[in-house]
Structure formats: C-alpha cells, structure tokens
Amino acid sequence: MGGCCSRDEVGRMPTCGAMEQVDAFYAAEEESVRVGDGGARVRLKGSCMVASMFTQQGWKGVNQDAMTVWEGFAGDQDTVFCGAFDGHGPYGHRVACHVRDALPSRLQSGMKAFEGGADDTAGDGWFASWKASIVSAFEELDKELSNHPWIDCICSGATAVTILKERDHLIIANLGDSRAVLCTRDDDDQLVPVQLTVDQKPNLPSELQQMH
C-alpha cells in the first residue's frame, strides 16, 4: 500500500519537529494489549495462547515492521485476525503502523453487510463475503493513504500479509512480497514449510503480464 515515485514535497509535509511528534505518538501507542472494535483483545507485540509476535531492528535505521493479533475478531470468540506489515521508504514505518491500526476495523465494518450469510461456514457464501470485504478494505485503505494529510505515501508504503482464522477455516490475503508460511509435517514426522502466498513483485512474469 502506498506508492513509489518522486515529486516535490514542498508544502505537503509537516515540519521535522511535527513528524518527530508523530513518531513519538506511535511509540507511546505500543502498549501490549488494547481493546478493539466489538470487544476484541488486540495485541501489538508479545504472545498469547494463539499467536506469538517478534521483530528485530536491522542496520538500516528505524524498524519499519508493524504487526497485530486480534482475538475475538468481529465479535466472534472463535475468530482470530493476524496481520504483519513491512514498511518501505522514508515514511514506511508510519504507513505500516497506520495500516495495522486501520485495516482490521475496516474489515469488520465491511463484513456487517454480509452478516446474513456469514454463518454458512461450509459453503462458498462465507468465503465470498470475507473475500469481498478484504479486497474492499485493501482498496479503500490504499486510496486513503494516497490522500493522507500527514503521512507522505508518494515514496513510501507497506506490504501486508493477513490471516483470518475462523474455527477450522483460514483466509490468507497479501499485498506485496511479505509471505505467510504454514509449518506442517511430512510422512516421516519432519517439519515442512508450505508457502501460502504468492509474492507480488514487478520482476515476476505473472506481474509483468498484468502490467502490460
């Protein structure tokens, strides 16, 4: 989400001091647990019974990773939402944090229109409803970021990889080249990684074909 090109930034961004205040705001918001929409238990770091999160700052500067786990997502105690967002560009950390905070709520709002068919967990209606909500939320958030008043997304953005677990069902959605990998076991009881997402990169043949 976001963009990647160059342009004159005069008059677009707040002063450096104001942006330092923005970064301080994000840092202050990094408490372990929040209460989200519908009473969900929201974690931004650490671990719980259903998930564990870890990130490590590299050598290139500020850590641009953001992640979240929502237990009791969409008001359902059997539903968990997980998301990881990797920022890029000079303001990538702000984009990643904004997506982390805004995307889950947008997904829940989108699902309200499909509540009538959400109980059909064995049929295609349930999946189609979530898919429509996810696609819409990604598109709306991307548009919102392009017009954000104090996060410059012209040269900055973030990848997104999200997992929605509802009882025995998994829905995985990704944007960019962050991956979801399932750890399973083979016939010899050895751990085997299974990549669940397909990278979106401009140098991949499938992406090039769509661009042309």
Any key phrases for this structure?
EC 3.1.3.16, PP2C, protein serine/threonine phosphatase activity, alpha+beta, two-stranded antiparallel sheet, Phosphatase 2c, domain 1, seven-stranded antiparallel sheet, PPM-type-like_dom_sf, 212 residues, protein phosphatase
Question: Would you give an account of this structure?
Answer:
- This is protein-serine/threonine phosphatase.
- InterPro entries: PP2C (IPR015655), PPM-type-like_dom_sf (IPR036457), PPM-type_phosphatase-like_dom (IPR001932).
- Keywords: Hydrolase, Protein phosphatase.
- It is globular, with a radius of gyration of 18 Å.
- Strands 1, 2, 5, 6, 7, 8 and 9 form a seven-stranded antiparallel β-sheet that branches.
- It is built from four helices and eleven strands, in the order αββββββααβββββα.
- α2 runs antiparallel to α3.
- The protein has one domain: PPM-type phosphatase domain (Phosphatase 2c, domain 1), CATH 3.60.40.10.
- It has helices at residues 16-28, 92-111, 124-146, 205-211; strands spanning 33-35, 41-43, 46-47, 52-53, 65-71, 79-88, 157-158, 160-166, 169-175, 181-185, 191-195.
- The protein has 212 residues and is an alpha+beta fold.
